[in-house]
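Notes from hallway chat w/ T.B., transcribed later so I don't forget. T.B. wanted the structure written out for a chain they're using in a teaching module, and asked if we could keep both sequence and structure tokens in one place. Agreed to drop them here.
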Amino acid sequence: MSPEDNVTIMKRWFQQVWNEGRVHTIHEVLAKDFIGYGQDAPGVAIRGPEGFVALYERFRAAFSEFRFTIEDAFASGDKVTVRWSAEMIHTGEHAGIRATHKKIRITGITIARFEGNKAVEAWDNWDQLALMQQLSAQSGGTAQAAHS
């Protein structure tokens, strides 16, 4: 596959998996031996499509109305880099915080390495602190009090 083809696959990933909720696309894009870093808690690696589905289902249970926007996407060799932003509504429990029903906005960068037409590795760096600050501030949590 060409680098441009891999960019197309990543655009499809964000559109179909996150914006449209198509779980089957996870299995179509990720290799069976896929390993992902940075999608979950620090130090936790995601393994295989089923590992990603478990993470995905947790996020879908906590947030709805996902809208990922690709800000930049480019490739070199077998790697694709995507800078993205996302908005979602907090409609379920996440990290011990009950639904606030507020709109959350996060940003991040994903780098994926491809073999053939499948992603075999991915590294995500996304603003988990901003997510937690928005949830805590909106739920009356202690994050605000800690800075007073």
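Follow-up for T.B.: The chain has a mean pLDDT of 91. Might be a good example for the class.
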